[in-house]
C-alpha cells in the first residue's frame, strides 16, 4: 500500500472529526507542535519505529511532543486510535498531511523565506506585504529560515512555487551560461 495513502486517510478522518467537534484549529496547532518535535529531535522517528518500545510509552511521547493535555479529547482519541491500529510510527506523516489538508481547507498558503542573513524588520514586513498581495486573498503560514550558503538575497517558497533571488542562484546561472 502507498505510504502516503495511510497518513492522508488518517489526516482526513482526523480533520473531519476535529471540525465536527470545533477543534480543528487547535488540532492544527498540536500537529504543528508534533511536526516541529520530529524536526528538532530526529531520534523521535527511530523511537516511534522501534518495536521494543511499548505502545503506551510511544503514545505518551506523542502526547508530550504535541503539547496535548488530558483535556484535549480529540487528540487523545486520535492517539488512542493510532495505538489500537498499530500506526503510531505514522504519526509524523499524519501530522504533516493534516496540516496540509487544514491549510487547503482554510485558504492558508505555506510561505518559507530563506535568506543568507537575518532580514531587517522593515525589509521582512515589506516582503510579507508583497507576498500577501500575490496570494489573492489567501492567508499565509509564514516561516523565515537562515541559510548562509545563499551568499546574499533570498528564496521564497509558496507551497510548491519557488522564487530564487539569491546570489548563489545567480552565480549558478552565470556558470551555466559560461559552460554553454
The quaternary organization reads as single chain
Helical stretch tally: 8
- Give the class from helix and strand content and strand pairing: alpha+beta
The end-to-end distance, rounded to whole angstroms, is: 45 Å
Rough outline = elongated
Main sheet: which strands, in order across?
Answer: 2-1-3-4
Beta-strand percentage range = 15-25%
Spell the H/E element sequence.
HHHHHHEHEEEH
Tell me the number of strands: 4
- What is the averaged pLDDT score? 92
- Rounded to the nearest angstrom, the radius of gyration is 20 Å
Query: Helix amount, in percent?
Result: 55-70%
The largest β sheet comes out as: 4 strands, mixed
Task: List unreliable stretches of 5+ residues.
Answer: none
Describe this protein's structure.
It is a single chain. By secondary structure, the chain is α+β, with helices and mostly antiparallel strands. Helix content is 59%, strand content 16%. The chain has helices at 5-20, 24-40, 43-49, 55-66, 73-84, 91-105, 121-134, 167-179; strands spanning 108-115, 139-146, 153-158, 161-166. The chain has a four-stranded mixed beta sheet. Strand 1, helix 7 (121-134) and strand 2 (139-146) form a beta-alpha-beta unit. The radius of gyration is 20 Å and the shape is elongated. The N and C termini lie far apart (45 Å). The model has no long low-confidence stretch (mean pLDDT 92).
Amino acid at each position: 500500500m502507498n505510504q502516503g495513502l495511510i497518513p492522508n486517510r488518517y489526516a482526513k478522518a482526523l480533520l473531519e472529526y476535529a471540525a465536527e467537534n470545533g477543534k480543528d484549529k487547535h488540532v492544527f496547532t498540536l500537529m504543528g507542535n508534533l511536526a516541529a518535535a520530529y524536526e528538532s529531535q530526529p531520534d523521535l522517528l527511530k523511537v516511534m519505529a522501534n518495536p521494543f518500545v511499548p505502545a503506551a510509552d510511544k503514545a505518551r511521547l506523542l502526547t508530550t511532543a504535541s503539547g496535548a493535555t488530558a483535556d484535549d479529547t480529540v487528540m487523545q482519541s486520535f492517539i488512542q486510535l493510532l495505538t489500537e491500529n498499530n500506526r503510531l510510527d505514522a504519526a509524523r506523516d499524519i501530522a504533516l498531511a493534516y496540516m496540509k489538508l487544514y491549510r487547503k481547507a482554510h485558504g492558508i498558503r505555506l510561505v518559507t523565506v530563506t535568506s543568507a542573513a537575518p532580514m531587517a524588520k522593515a525589509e521582512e514586513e515589506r516582503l510579507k506585504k508583497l507576498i500577501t498581495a500575490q496570494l489573492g486573498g489567501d492567508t499565509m503560514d509564514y516561516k523565515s529560515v537562515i541559510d548562509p550558503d545563499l551568499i546574499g538575497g533570498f528564496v521564497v517558497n509558496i507551497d510548491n512555487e519557488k522564487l530564487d533571488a539569491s546570489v548563489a542562484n545567480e552565480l549558478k546561472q552565470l556558470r551555466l551560461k559560461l559552460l554553454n
